[in-house]
Amino acid sequence: MWKGAVAMVIVGVVLVWLQCPKTVSRQDYLDHIKDKVVVLCGASSGIGEQLAYKLGEQGAQIMIVARTQSKLEKVKEGAIAAGAKRVEIFPYDFSNVEESGSVIDRAVEVFGKIDYLVLNHAAMVSGFVSSNARHQETAFIKRMYNINTFSFFELTFKALPYLEKSGGHIIATSSMAGETPTSFSNIYTSTKHAVNGFFYSLQQELIARKSSVGITIGALGFIQTDDLTAVLGDDGIEIFPAFARGDVRECAKGMMNSLIVRPRTFTYPWTSNKMQRLLWFINPYYHEMINGQLPLEKAEELLKNFKERAQERDFQKGNF
Description:
The chain is α/β, with parallel strands linked by helices. The chain has twelve helices and nine strands. It has helices at 2-18, 26-32, 46-57, 69-82, 102-111, 138-166, 186-208, 226-237, 248-261, 270-282, 286-292, 296-313; strands at residues 37-41, 61-66, 86-91, 116-119, 169-173, 214-220, 222-223, 245-246, 265-268. Strand 4, helix 6 and strand 5 (169-173) form a beta-alpha-beta unit. The protein is globular. The termini are far apart.
């Protein structure tokens, strides 16, 4: 019995590591990024901001979208300085799902086409849902789903006809929370499970139809952005081992490369997330062991500190 289990583990590890990210050449950037039109949602900070700069370096045309115009102006300046051919800003609050298609309408009006759609906006909330009355409110849950899930759907539906014409690609930024459960971000985790279910299903549908449109789901772990680092503090960051902390610029580069290579999934940080996925497959109870290493009192203290720092910085992940 144990020999069979060991063999399964070895085979699983080999298969995981064989799925190495493909290299991208300078010619690939010229062929697939230069002059291409990218609609980048959630672009005012963090991963989205760095992705705007990476795309700018390769001469892309970008429409950057987020709630705060002043932050978008700053990112626009940086992307143009990096070499972007053209950058347009479109301030939008994705909690308003019904009008989110106006993002696509504006992009087509300005650029005449869309080559790539990057859905990177998100609202992240932490806390134990069983003991937090606000997290149980229908209005709160609906707002989270509007931003994290339903706006993703609406933008995709609106953009698909244009992406079919250009042979384009979609990146839907998700999370490892969409694959494995976490005890202190119940609502956020459920929104990401919904994102995964929708986009992996649509991915297979497009393949079956032999569509020219591709989809990459971003399976992201802990990405050490400036905002998140400041909000978590040293005590929160120490929960994550060094190999499980992703660099925001490397993550952005990997996402840009995904527009070229078109993998079904972009996993980052690569090693820790692959290990997490493998452990979850082998032993679905492993997360309970992880939870056991963090006493409830310590978790509640960390969440309290997180909330206080977030309020001080008016923090929302992705600046939706």
